[in-house]
Amino acid sequence: MYYKGFYHLFYQYNPKGAVWGNIVWAHSVSKDMINWISLEPAIVPSKSFDKYGCWSGSATILPGNKPVIIYTGIINKKPEPGHQVQNYAIPANYSDPYLRKWIKPDNNPIIKPTHENVSSFRDPTTAWFNNGHWKIIIGSKRNRRGIAYLYRSRDFVKWTKAQHPFHTKRDTGMWECPDFYPVSTRGTNGLDTSTLGKDVKYVFKVSLDMTRYDYYTIGKYDLFYDEYVPGNTSVDGWAGLRYDYGNFYASKAFFDPVQKRRILMGWANESSTSNEDIAKGWAGIHLIPRKVWLDPSGHKLLQWPIRELENLRGQKVHLSNVEINKGDTIEIKGITAVQADVEVSFTISSLDKAEPYDEKWTKFPPEDVAKSICGIRGATIQGGVGPFGFLTLASSKLQEYTPVFFRVFKTADKKHKVLLCSDATPSSLNQNEYKPSFGGFVDVDLAEKKLSLRSLIDHSVVESFAEGGKTVISSRVYPTLAIAENAHLYVFNNGSEIITIESLDAWSMKTAHVN
User: Fold this and answer.
1) d(Cα 442, Cα 452) in Å, to the nearest integer?
2) Per-residue pLDDT tens over the stretch 43-67
3) How does DSSP assign 221-264, residue by residue?
4) How far is CA 460 from CA 284, 456, 488, in A?
5) What is the pTM of this model?
6) DSSP for residue 490
7) What's the order of all strands across the beta sheet hosting 313-324?
8) Does Hydrolase appear among the keywords (predicted)?
């Protein structure tokens, strides 16, 4: 949230070690969402209503510029993972822009499960206001059915559950960290969470515990029944749209009232072993904040790193009109490849040699088609149009590298299917790491035979944005050789068709200040 000159980030944190447990609400503040000041935890277990953990929740700014937090408290360890209730907390001193101290009033908990699943009843959202009531949703499940329960309140203390779920879907499992917010059908500006109107659509997002990915749909808000109705342009479930087709979970969006934008914050856990995490002394990172807005088609969201990130750009390298033939690997020299921002626009000479899209692939689980194809058609497998893109965090002799690349397929109806892959398989010689291949299709018209890609490279993470943020993939990787000054960045083409680097800009990135 934003309050009195600072962006406030609250996050799930274990102060006692680099493994899950002892969860508190850690608290950091920032002027720009890039450089952060770490403060003491805002909420820690201390009362009967949160004795065994202060789990996730949300902040809402009430009228009069008064922030309030609603969070999940664990009152008993059984049934696993814990008996869950919803509590609220308010600042001890509203005049403190840092909001260092929070009070948990004695009338907590304010929402208790009655007929709901007590061990799957968590993660309340930011509240929105209409028809005289504040409204929040809470994630849950019944058997394998995912559920978002709606609660209403006039005073933010006494809450009543709505007769019907806000949204529900069978066979999706527990809905963690639900999120609901409006997006404008005109332009890229964000909207306050309570916004209604004719030029507005709505995003409903859930983090599926069973798959560990974040899924969303675009739909409408039925005010009469107070429920969400997903549109028919994408699947509502495991095969649906994702914010990020890689290592990205438990995200949260908020409205930035200063710059009138909707910001998305996401978490990337480690792909290393817990013993390695303990040795490092930390586990889990927040990815670079993203601005999100509705694609002009109205069918999906676009995401792009916030522009404040560009203040970390240092040394720059520029290339233009460079042809990459089949088998070529061109090093991007003159930048710190281990900490870089690289943006490129490719031109494809011809689409004639695009590989046929194999009909057998339709038998893959629909939610994993792209990932599966990236796994069997890696960067070293020659193709027609592609693979082409970046080799990030590469060692000098390519014993280690993390490729981020496009492949273009021709479908039976003579159309083209563009695939973006981020493949951690060759990223490290360490055999203990989880090194998945991630993939996502890119909804793009290839009439002009152009594709764009931006990757943020930062030691153990590569965040990649295709076609202005239509498809995003984040990978966690742990090279043993391609570290510090021994990391390299290359552009490559392993397809028959010539690819031209129309324009490439790469920057060394300075280190953000974290106190």
Assistant:
1) 11
2) 999 999 999 999 999 999 999 999 9
3) EETTTTEEEE-SSS-SSTTSEES-SSS-EEEEEEEETTTTEEEE
4) 11, 11, 14
5) 0.97
6) E
7) 313-324, 499-509, 339-348, 450-458, 461-466, 471-476
8) yes
